[in-house]
Predict the structure.
Amino acid sequence: MNKYKLAWWKVVTIILLYYTVIGGFLIPVPRLHILNESIRMNYFHVPMWFAMISLFTYSVWSSIQYLRTHNIDFDDKAVESVKVAFFFGCLGLVTGMIWANATWGAFWTNDPKLNNTAIGLLIYSAYFVLRGSLEDETQRGRLSAVYNIFAFAVFIPLIFILPRMSDSLHPGSGNNPTFRLFDTSHNMKLVVYTAIISFIALSWWLYTLFLRIRAIKKLRDEIF
Amino acid sequence: MKYSKVTILLALVLFSLPSLGQGNDVVEMADVLRQDGKIYTVVFGLVIILTAMIILLIRMDRKIFRLEQDLKREK
């Protein structure tokens, strides 16, 4: 029997997460009006979306592979990555709402970026409904794979393109400052990039755990 | 009349004091918190939460690994 060993990339993830949490609070940030210390939300809110988008992208790739090969393993990968991505999307939405209340004075504003993100997440929640309503494995796999691809094709314009076509309160849109690649201060870049990498790795770790539980369930059903 | 120049100077300085404070453009940050060292309490709390979460994650990782091994043997 093999002995359990913690994979190297999981160790790296843990170290980077500690750096994010400690550095995110203690490393100096630019002093800006209205934002004050709430600028530090950037360290924890932005990585949620990066983790979500990377897993959604991976799930679309898995869905395409499933349609090409009809190998059910790809269907498993697609559904588990959508699950974890959805979880991170909800976290991003909640952290954003807390920040909005501190900065804009309301938990929710009718901003295109906020509304479109909510619509996008609702589209993905329909993915779970679709899967739950189908019994046959191949039918479920095929339909949900097609739905997943279309959902992604709607989601990307909804959150990246449409908000930029109108004025938005959200930082980074229109002429608003903060998170832009070249005008973020050096100290903030250090933590933001580390946070993005560490949370993407953490979401990947969670995804592999979910996938393995699913595989175990299947194996057990075969044996008993 | 002897001290009129001094009085006017003093008055002008006193009146301009509030605007001096505004001119410095002070942005409120959690400086006092940092001076008192209280921010470290929060960081410490978060580190403990993170540690607990990571321990939970690693234990789950190990449990799933064991389950996989058991199933492999049964097969």
Summary: The CA atoms of residues 26 and 53 of chain B lie 39 Å apart. Chain B touches chain A at residues 27-30, 39, 42-43, 46-47, 50, 54, 57-58, 60-62, 64-69, 71, 73-75 (CB under 8 Å). Helices of chain B lie at 4-23, 31-36, 39-74.
